[in-house]
Specification:
- By secondary structure, the chain is mainly α.
- Helices cover 76% and strands 0% of the residues.
- Helix 2 (38-75) runs parallel beside helix 7 (159-177), helix 2 (38-75) packs antiparallel against helix 8 (182-207) and helix 2 (38-75) packs across helix 9 (214-225).
- 24% of the residues are buried.
């Protein structure tokens, strides 16, 4: 089991490095030109979305973990002190301004996340804003996935769904290797519910034969690139890959 996990991580790391290396080459080396037709615009959006898949999914996992922890802290009647001591919560609070930024349209609520909302508490605004942010990002997942699979025809398999399955697998491994606790179990169950909600939303779009408007997709791309938590992941990954490139070059 440990060997399989290591092989999976190595394979994922190699694939991610190759993808980001190609993206950097395209951005830095190729001469910019005006997009002549709709097909080129689709390909441009495809490249941007593929670059964001991993950062978006990791942001979802981390936000869900913080939401679960926030609810647990309230139950322990110690939420306020945890927020004051926790840089991650202050970081989320500072990023709440992004909720008020204009986006193409508002997403549907995710039912099970509503159970994590906090009422009549001094910390409720932070927790509930975080849930709204996670709901929005999950909605963008669906928009991007439908675009990649049914408009750009990027792949036969769904990269976002595969990412959810990967995270569930990783968290299950953590549960197996450590003493099972409420936090870890809740995270696994939460990821499963988000994956289920994701699949349902994709099917709804397919059944209605809805078409992503390309201009909306580009707006979502811009919105997510400016989203603080996701942009930080993209920057971190780019810097890590650049370091790896330099190591390879020196060899």
């Amino acid at each position: 089991m440990i060997m399989k996990k290591q092989e999976y991580k190595i394979s994922w790391s190699n694939s991610a490095n190759e993808a980001y290396r190609l993206i950097r080459y395209i951005r830095k080396k190729l001469i910019p030109y005006n997009i002549p037709n709709n097909l080129e615009s689709i390909r441009s959006a495809e490249i941007e979305i593929v670059q964001m898949i991993h950062p978006i999914l990791e942001t979802i996992r981390n936000m869900l973990r913080k939401i679960i922890r926030g609810k647990m802290n309230v139950l322990r009647v110690s939420f306020e002190s945890d927020i004051n001591d926790s840089p991650s919560y202050n970081k989320i609070e500072n990023n709440n301004y992004h909720i008020n930024q204009p986006c193409p349209y508002q997403p549907f609520s995710i039912e099970f996340l509503e159970d994590y909302k906090i009422m009549n508490n001094s910390s409720s605004q932070i927790q509930n804003d975080m849930i709204d942010q996670l709901t929005l990002i999950c909605h963008v997942n669906v928009e991007f996935a439908y675009f990649l699979l049914h408009i750009a025809h990027y792949s036969q398999s769904d990269p976002f769904l595969n990412g959810f399955l990967r995270m569930i697998y990783e968290e299950n491994i953590i549960c197996e290797n450590r003493n099972r606790n409420y936090m870890n179990l809740q995270l696994v169950e939460g990821l499963k519910k988000l994956a289920s909600n994701y699949k349902q939303r994709v099917e709804v779009i397919k059944s209605k034969s809805e078409q992503n408007i390309l201009s909306d997709i580009h707006q979502w791309i811009k919105y997510m690139h400016e989203y603080p938590l996701i942009s930080e992941y993209i920057i971190d990954i780019s810097e890590e890959n650049l370091t790896n490139d330099n190591k390879i070059t020196s060899i």
